[in-house]
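Request: Could I get any protein with tokenized structure?
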Amino acid sequence: MAGHAPSSNSYRPARILVTGAAGFIGFHLTRRLLARGDQVVGLDNLNDYYDVSLKQARLAQLEGNVNFRFVNLELADREGIAALFAAEPFDKVVNLAAQAGVRYSLQNPHAYVDSNLVGFVNILEGCRHNGIKHLVYASSSSVYGANTRMPFSVHHNVDHPVSLYAATKKANELMAHTYAHLYGLPCTGLRFFTVYGPWGRPDMALFLFTQAILEGRPIDVFNYGKMRRDFTFVDDIVEGVIRVTDNIATGNPEWNGDAPDPGTSVAPYRLYNIGNNNPVELMYLIETLEGALGKKAEKNLLPIQPGDVPATYADVEALVADVGFKPATPIEEGVRRFVEWYRDYYRV
């Protein structure tokens, strides 16, 4: 197994490309990397999938830093991405840019192909031709799809996605493996589990619920509130991403083609779950939110939506073994911190 992440006193600053830098996780990650002295080029296309002014407000928090440069670029722009890699001597790449959202993939499938497939191969090619030491990329807990064996493990097979979004994330893992195998490019995929926290995405349940409750509107509660999600606080996600980025993927010498382990390879390729390892029922999230807001929600109970899975639960043993980290922020604390940010940002 790979060793531990370097301690802070032995760390040498790196030059890192973060795609999706104006996004929720990308913003928090970039801020942390800059705080420890890394140079970051942040790429984003600032698309209007959700409120662009929120993305711009995140960027405004980063742009005063001398070690930060922003590039407005589409991942699917093959020439643009190639030119960026040729011009910048990146050490590592963290690819968080993607068309997000399970439900939107039912309405606009082409957006997912352009960003998550075409865009990802452009990133892989940039890494391959420019000697990148490590590519870390966002996968998703949605790859577990129709799997029901809990907790979800990177050592389980994931061949039954239930949304196009999930299928593109599974495809990213396969594409990364190919490049690790053919070109020796170290690649690590991170399966994020329902991320929430300050500066979060307005299309996510916690944000939608907070907005509706404060405005006195009813909230749509799918699967009659029985959904279980491994809600993971954004600071925990970022800590995991940083530790994994520092811990360059290596081959697993015990890997065996007769009984192939999906989470590792002979090639320098790894997959990790980053989740709170503690699923919470949606109804409990709502109760916690009501407590933080000091206001009751009017609930509109509805059946489960197409493309959604009833439960997610992360097995994080591989993450703990390889980088010595396990997410642990309790839902009560995370929701309180989100509500504080929301009230401050929207002045309510």
